[in-house]
């Protein structure tokens, strides 16, 4: 799938003879206009469907999203002029659609009632999400302004490891929310550190493997067509495996565990070009998942709800959501009910975060969901395209690590709510409600844009050669 | 590093492809199943989103809708005289789903039926709210009232048909229930009312539709079927010829004598006389002489061993196909394995009354769009011809004698010819439980027979002789027939 894009872009990214390479910033701007206008129309659509009138918040929302997109675009234009033109518009569009869906669920009497019953009061989430998006864009801008070159991150390889571990372990010390320990709360704020750890650990993996790749790739024995690594080289993979198992056991977070291990295997494979790592990785994750599922009740519950979403036992327990989610998708059918006209709010808990995809499923139908999945696929493929174009191994590894983490997250969440795999507590990037998620994902896009800017920037003109001048002077 | 990168790109593409495939599965292939899943609240929300159409009897609605608040259901079903009509309407409850006509014609009643698509689209364009259509039934309010009030506090059921068309005129079942008591979704009132009606708490099973869903041993009323079989299969030709019926009669292959109720003149009695006094020996021997196959053939022509769809489904009445001579003899007097729904026995009477032609029973005369346009009209259909016109008239003659001078005299109506047959069926181990009192009959006027009816009263306290059918059930049948005859004039 990247073959077509790679052929069209080869000319643009080639370093030789690239005088006058188009920066594609105007393409990005044009796409951003669509990425803002489409959600604004969707917003009006919801208002008309729910209240029979053009929503009064339309101008504020349009200006808010437009403003964010505009700022982000100007920052890219100034600090990363050669960046990939698709990433920012895609993220903006998804963010905008997510805001519409969150606002739509804010209008649901059922969820308002539910909040009043549980917490005594209902407060709308959409304004908060808009604020988080603004913070996300601020993060994005900060990364582009202060991170002049992604290779600077390479210096922080081992610090990243420590920070990531701290972030991952921290939730253990905080109370579980709905069975999963993935939050830490500081005052009124709750943070999902896993979202940030995703990026930071990608930096560690890339930095570490860039250094160790040769040892891991070459020092191996051939056995049955596979290159088997030496025992001592197995250390890192076993460490990461154990770490993700610990996350799974202590934080009962299937999704994050899968995400880290998956990302590690991808980066390891790319760094060493050894297929045997993939075989090992699959085997180890299989053993780990089955092993944990056999004694961890929370995981068993999830698997149970996945296999029999409609059984009375599951529905009367805590996991009615799975059946409700499936019924929301089914009720949407091919074309959906139209925005604001579905009943996806029946999902109740986490309707606008983990399960927001079901709202798209019901109200935009198969057509809308496929479009959104393709938007995600485009982000992932642009990310991998960036990795291909990157000229340094660290950039390649970091770009592919982040892109594949993004892809795995989309797969785990969307697959979870659609009943393809057991449900795990992660959120759909950009569309789901949640500050940590939207900020971390804007940061992720910021790093990818930084790498792609470096990769696509035309090589600087050769510096004038002082030797040549001296030669000229000497010549009589 | 670029080769593995390209492979990772393909891998990520496959992940997305898997998601797309799964999405197509749940939103296209399995979408209908999920949309209409019994646990999908949207079905109920949709059902009560707009005022539901009505079920109509004699031009007047027997149902209604009221606006509700405080839940996601906009409207609630109401019923006028719910207990009387419950066996016809079934129920439509926000919390407990819908049954019978309320469920089967849900599409028309909610306005979602495909046949209303054009209209619905038009309404959507003109901004009109969606409305439900009406279900017009064939029932006769007077007859239903007579049946329901006749049963009163007793446990039992009544089914009445128009023999000429098969249209159902009355369908009563007692004890009954009021579907409006649990039409809402309140956890206090509606759920409690519902719990109280369940079999666990209420052994009388008020929600059982006895007229269609309960099979009883039909007792002596089944002798009409046996008489029809004797005439049809040429065992006897004339109601007034003597039959070859010894008394006492020992059932073939056994040492058991088949007993009559009391000391009645059954030895070699004519068919007419045997039906008048209800001789077990005569009809038992006919069954044993014809044997299983021929009896089965006639019983099935009358509709036994088959569910009927009126469109509300009935249970299948039973006449077994693997019996020896003595079992066939017992079955032929409505005992042993023979079991029939009240509707089935009304069909037996109606086939005789309609000169041998059995019409398919139905209870919906037409479906109306919200603007009262007819969406679908039921036309009467012939189901079978269990006996010839000539034999049917012979049997009518015999049944009329039963009412004139026999066990069914309580069913007489002045100025109307009535034919009938009483029955009392024993049940329980060693017949320990109270018997069922049966009566099946038809009335005949100059324009053919407008009504055939079957009445069963459970747990009758009466004695076990055949009179109880005439004593308990016949007056109810008479009132129902009279109500129909009077309303036709």
Automatic annotation (TrEMBL), chain A:
Chief location category: membrane
Compositional bias per record (Low complexity), positions renumbered to this chain: 1-15
Compartment(s) where it occurs, according to its Swiss-Prot or TrEMBL record: Membrane
Stretches for region Disordered: 1-20
Membrane topology: Multi-pass membrane protein
PANTHER family listed in its UniProt record: CELL CYCLE PROTEIN (PTHR30474), PEPTIDOGLYCAN GLYCOSYLTRANSFERASE RODA (PTHR30474:SF3)
The protein's name: FtsW/RodA/SpoVE family cell cycle protein
Organism of provenance: Streptomyces physcomitrii
Automatic annotation (TrEMBL), chain B:
All copies of domain Penicillin binding protein A dimerisation, residue ranges: 52-135
Domain of life of the native organism: Bacteria
Domain Penicillin-binding protein transpeptidase: 156-482
Pfam families registered for this protein in UniProt: PBP_dimer_2, Transpeptidase
PANTHER family reported for this sequence: PENICILLIN-BINDING PROTEIN 4B, PEPTIDOGLYCAN D,D-TRANSPEPTIDASE
Protein's name in the database: Penicillin-binding protein 2
